[in-house]
Amino acid sequence: MSVKGDRMKKAAVIMSLCIAFFFSALGWAVEPRVSEDTEGCLECHSTVCPNIVEDWKKGRMSRTTPAEAMKKPSMERRVSFDKIPTSLTDVVVGCAECHALNSQKHPDSFEHNGYEVHVVVTPEDCAVCHPLEREEYSHNLMAHAYGNLKNNPVYQSLAKSVNGSQSFSKGKIVYGPANEETEAESCLFCHGTQVKQKGMVKRETDFGDMSFPVLTGWPNQGSGRINPDGSKGCCSACHARHQFDIGMARKPYTCSECHKGPDVPAYPVYQVSKHGNMFSSLGNGSSWNYETVPWVVGKDFTAPTCAVCHVSLLVSKDGTQVARRTHRMNDRIFERLFGLVYAHPHPVSADTSVIRNKAGLSLPTELTGEPAATYLIDRAEQERREKRMQQVCLACHSNEWVKGHFDRFKNTIQTTNAMTLTATQILLSAWDQGMARGPAEKDSIFNESIEKMWVEQWLFYANSTRFASAMVGADYGVFDNGRWYLSKNIQEMLDWIHLHKPE
Amino acid sequence: MSVKGDRMKKAAVIMSLCIAFFFSALGWAVEPRVSEDTEGCLECHSTVCPNIVEDWKKGRMSRTTPAEAMKKPSMERRVSFDKIPTSLTDVVVGCAECHALNSQKHPDSFEHNGYEVHVVVTPEDCAVCHPLEREEYSHNLMAHAYGNLKNNPVYQSLAKSVNGSQSFSKGKIVYGPANEETEAESCLFCHGTQVKQKGMVKRETDFGDMSFPVLTGWPNQGSGRINPDGSKGCCSACHARHQFDIGMARKPYTCSECHKGPDVPAYPVYQVSKHGNMFSSLGNGSSWNYETVPWVVGKDFTAPTCAVCHVSLLVSKDGTQVARRTHRMNDRIFERLFGLVYAHPHPVSADTSVIRNKAGLSLPTELTGEPAATYLIDRAEQERREKRMQQVCLACHSNEWVKGHFDRFKNTIQTTNAMTLTATQILLSAWDQGMARGPAEKDSIFNESIEKMWVEQWLFYANSTRFASAMVGADYGVFDNGRWYLSKNIQEMLDWIHLHKPE
Amino acid sequence: MSVKGDRMKKAAVIMSLCIAFFFSALGWAVEPRVSEDTEGCLECHSTVCPNIVEDWKKGRMSRTTPAEAMKKPSMERRVSFDKIPTSLTDVVVGCAECHALNSQKHPDSFEHNGYEVHVVVTPEDCAVCHPLEREEYSHNLMAHAYGNLKNNPVYQSLAKSVNGSQSFSKGKIVYGPANEETEAESCLFCHGTQVKQKGMVKRETDFGDMSFPVLTGWPNQGSGRINPDGSKGCCSACHARHQFDIGMARKPYTCSECHKGPDVPAYPVYQVSKHGNMFSSLGNGSSWNYETVPWVVGKDFTAPTCAVCHVSLLVSKDGTQVARRTHRMNDRIFERLFGLVYAHPHPVSADTSVIRNKAGLSLPTELTGEPAATYLIDRAEQERREKRMQQVCLACHSNEWVKGHFDRFKNTIQTTNAMTLTATQILLSAWDQGMARGPAEKDSIFNESIEKMWVEQWLFYANSTRFASAMVGADYGVFDNGRWYLSKNIQEMLDWIHLHKPE
Q: B38 exposed, middle or buried (CB, 10 Å; 0-12, 13-18, 19+)?
């Protein structure tokens, strides 16, 4: 389209906006179809926990019925159901529509002022209107984050070394286990707790004595939460209650809740990338539009947020699809960069507790780096995923630019794996010479000083260097938490074994 | 209130807004009552230091007289005086109203173009209109931050080990004291300097030769600044001159000036919390209102900033008070989390230099953790404070949610204190065996390598883990600066004593 | 000007704004003069790489012709040419105007659908309209960042120790060189790569088979990039393509891309300064204006961003110039704070590879701190630069305030240099006693553990303390990455030499 025509259109848009504003202002005042049950909830909760109600009112669900949502052209649709119960069709999605949905399936349902309500809304509830998203999400490692941690003896040993108690006695340290509360606010805060009803408690309220369920592992909004109904996941991990604003999920702050530390520094890397700069400089006021579906490249935003590359349905201004929406984020992730000793092809199954390497450990590679290939996607699948991601890159960059970027990234995967191997060899040497106690002594591989140095080599430094490469945030990958430490740490490990040489 | 009625109201609000805008635009043009003295200041300072004038013009004080401010309904009032000098009542609060107020009480007052003005506006000046706020603030540790540091020998020893010089000679390090300039931009930058007039200096200006006071410890905006008039504190630490925008004080960036480092990581923890995410995602454009008094939960904001939980007057939409305004922030703080070896009940007196533990040290606990109970609030007061804080939580969360959160937090206080005790025992063992020189040798407990490792255990890691728990920013408390280091540091200290064993 | 008159003006401004909006809306619809060549580019690229086109459309260059830009009063002008080719005068600056400009000078020009275009737009291209900015920029260290690194053997040794491979064999580490891809995403990411055409590649496209140039070191947007036409620099390092929004360059996020790590922590220091707080609290919505030229202190912004102090043309509200625009940022920098062992007067020549100290090393000081004075600016020039910077400070602060600040800063330069000297003396002692291999053994001074501790003393801690002082972000300079580590590191180095004492 020529620039000329484009400008004429803009004039038309200005006028339309004025008209639209008038009608939307009018429409705003039009009575929404709130169910009687929800009106009942609102009655008290406008004063009890008032922010919940106000927050919900600001969201789209308080203004739209599922029937209206389905009428939209397919590209603009935010729901994916074929059919839902008629009782839900023509009322907005309010308190009762979620918290009193299918009560019989929720062990935490309880009688509350004449309603059967459950505290923990689960992906099964959301799936009534969003079945495709639930299905896709279930194939993510994140959906299995609880089991992937809890059912993996290697991870359990690491978790104990971090969260467990340590007491000092006669010149020695004795490790104890971590208690449940500690775990819930450490690893399981993001991975998800197991939420189960363990009884009821009576409490005096402004409305008289009332009973409420007592839940284990509560509160929690971890991505792989095990819910009372047995389902896995927590949609509000990213889609914060009760506004459920799509724009919030599209902004990088949401991802940063779990992806900021040195173990998975996606957010700090993003911040120092050109993309992050553009988001902060250009997109952080009111000039970008985070609410539209589909999301229009160039019009609604100028540089990617996390969601742009990993999740959202993108189109160019002429309506051509740039990327399909996916809640299975690994669709575009060909290599797993973090959380394990070596970067490796993405696991086939989102349930990684099934993985065993040749040494029998629950690790996707050997300690020396060879991948446990049976459990990992093959080269063909890696290429498919890489291509999918590159389709997003190509909305803003040339083929040569993109190729140059991915070449460097792959090189970085190799060099950082090599630097981890070097650290591993130093550790193996320390074990061999009896300076530290390792697998041969059936001791944890995470509890001694030299072992912790080794962990930092891959969990922090190799991994940060790879993120900085993948997301073009070089500053983080050099002196901030990357190559400087990757190389320095090796010298410090070397120092350590020299000082601990058996005499 | 029903949703239906609520929507009708919104239509009315839209119309009112239009009308309000028209009148506010008109009103904007109405002449403010600027005093003659202030007009005199503005004359020159519109060109000399012009930003000061422009900044002030943008603020509320340049547009409102104290008389008008007092006319507001009590919940909307931003001032707390009973009576003020009539000369101040009907003019806006301009340059002269603060900088020429009660000149005789200000040793730094000087003759300036026919006016007696003082450079350093102090809480005594602000208290003319805001006496309650000054009074409340004076009960904070922050108000006594200068003396609490300067009059505590333990802290002075720590400060010297950080800010002092170190020179190398014959294989040894000799510590020297820190000079005044270093202290002013290290600890005292936030704690406050002592500002005293030490003379006058003559300077050539565009308006001829003029004399200006020379001040010690200047500039400084620390929270516990000792002012020339003997008062303590600096309102502009949080209420930045000369706009004094309430919205600025309500945003977390203000608190982050002093609360960002590993010793008091409130801000980085907030950033990765759901609250921080909501502030950044939803509240950082123009959709939240940071200017209203009282501050309406749900309407003006959807998630808390620092001020919401610790300071501001909050109401729900129907006008019910959720929390009273307090400038005595410890009203809601039952435990002191940071800055000392062990977390402990909040001190009774804001002047902590009076505290002595059984060992005679200026510490609120023994080195082994037992609280110096006489100087600390008791369990009943702790509970009152906890309840006050929970009132804020309950505006958005259920009782069970809140209880679950606080149970975890208390568990974390215990486990982190235990991990500090372990580190302390290692240090005691190092002192006992003569590997390092401690209290027995009358040596600083902060100046050697193993002692500095011990300091990091509580000043950085235990403390960060507690903040992450208190403010639900788990990501910071696991690998970023929390449990990972809390547990690793113990292994490193153990390593250290093994390597330094006397032979 | 009196406040009264000022308010009346505001009423007028409100009316003007309404009228202005009407006409700008109209004007928006007016046809821009896009060249035929650019229309040709837009034809395909509206669908191929669509964001490039949309991004450009949002920028000023797509709406303004050079002729119009020159008509502005000189203070409002954003261009600095005397004369440009007539073919460019009356069309907006579109794709062809940059990518097909002076093709014969660009070795990476290639035939593309009937046009001769080059991929890499260079400062020579931008200089057609912005010759003064190009000239000024060329005197920055940043413009020479590639050569300053590549042609300095000391830096090359440091780079190898960071980016090179390390392998473990028989208890020893062997260092290997870094490969080109690693360098391109480590140091050279910000310093700039050398971009050269190394051939063409044929690729299947939606428009049939086409050929594209293959470039070395591509992509890259480093500040000292060596371009195919031999020029140095990359304007889009700060002025991001293709919107080239001046507001983006004026926001601190842009500088943070390269100035965030512990080696040059300008951005994290800014964040915790009062200035940074005001930017985030007051200036990060829509209330400040980042687009105007000249930039009006107090009206457009209330607190400085990086650009305010270092680059932008500033005036006060009455039109008086506060600071001239300069793209030679060292105009106002009297001391070099970072990147070298000791802070020292700024180098005379932006090409620092010419520097040799008495020991023959490419360093601006001796290892013991004495400056290599011949290569550095003298005291008189330092004072001129300091004065220039202070002119900016004085727009908001009094002379005494500014003097107090600079006195502290100079004190900090001295004390941090002294702390570095102490660390150097410990290192020299380690070399002397054969604990580590240094210059005497012709070994790298960066590759061993104790040497890396020494590097952190100046590259991270001394330097961070200085930045915190210079930019008044104390919190970063105490416990975050400053004096705490500066003093602790010395104790750790001391520990190291005690443990490694030859027996």
A: buried
Say whether the peptide bond before residue A327 is cis (omega within 30 degrees of 0): no
- B286 — pLDDT class (breaks 50, 70, 90): confident
Separation CA A222–CA A218 (nearest Å)? 11
| Per-residue pLDDT tens over the stretch B77-95 | 999 999 999 999 999 999 9
What pLDDT score does C29 carry?
45
The answer to whether C239 and C248 are in contact (CB under 8 A) is: yes
A 10 A CB-CB count for B306 gives 25
Phi, psi of A170 (to 5 degrees): 50, 45
Q: How far apart are CA C483 and CA A407, in angstroms?
A: 41
Instruction: Report residue A130 as tokens.
Output: 């969003």
Please calculate the CA angle C245-C256-A390 and round it to the nearest 5 degrees. 70
Above 80 in pLDDT, residue C25? no
Contact check, Cβ <8 Å, A261/B407: no
Peptide bond into B242 cis (omega under 30): yes
Any idea what DSSP says for residue B301? B
Q: Which two tokens stand for residue A61?
A: 């669900």
Burial class of B22 by CB neighbour count within 10 A (0 to 12, 13 to 18, 19+): exposed
DSSP summary character for residue A241: T
| CA–CA distances in Å: residue A429 to residues A432, B496, C312 | 5, 21, 57
H-helix or E-strand spanning residue B399: helix B399-432
* Interchain proximity C201–A400, CB inside 8 Å: yes
C132: Cα within 13 Å, side-chain hemisphere? 10
Confidence category of residue B7, pLDDT binned at 50, 70, 90 = low
Interface contact flag, B240 C468, Cβ < 8 Å: no
ipTM of the predicted structure?
A: 0.93
- Tell me how close the Cα of A211 comes to any Cα of chain B, in angstroms: 11
Give the confidence band of B9 by pLDDT, cuts at 50, 70, 90.
Answer: low
At A285 the pLDDT is 77
- For the record, the structure tokens of B75 come out as 């919940």
Check residue B285 and give its pLDDT. Answer: 77
Most A CBs within 10 A among B267, B282, B416, hence the mutation to make, goes to B282
Q: Do A261 and B422 touch (CB under 8 A)?
A: no
For testing the chain A interface, which of C28, C38, C51 should be mutated: the one with the most A CBs within 10 Å? C51
Distance from CA of C174 to the nearest CA of B (A): 26
| C384 vs B270: CA distance, rounded Å | 43
Answer yes or no: do B165 and C14 touch at CB < 8 A.
Answer: no
Q: Which two tokens stand for residue A268?
A: 């700090």
| pLDDT above 90 (res B58) | yes
Nearest CA in chain C to B44: C1
**Neighboring chains of B (3 or more beta-carbon pairs < 8 A):** A, C
Select the residue of C11, C285, C477 nearest B28 (Cβ to Cβ).
C11
CB-side neighbour CA atoms (13 Å) of C446: 21
The whole-angstrom separation of Cα A3 and Cα A233 is: 47
From the list C107, C109, C213, C195, the residue with the least C-alpha distance to C146 is C195
pLDDT of residue B14: 57
Contact state of A243 with B7 under an 8 Å Cβ cutoff = no
Assess contact for C240 and C254: CB atoms under 8 A. yes
Contacts of C299 in chain B (CB under 8 A): 54
Q: What is the CA radius of gyration of chain B?
A: 26
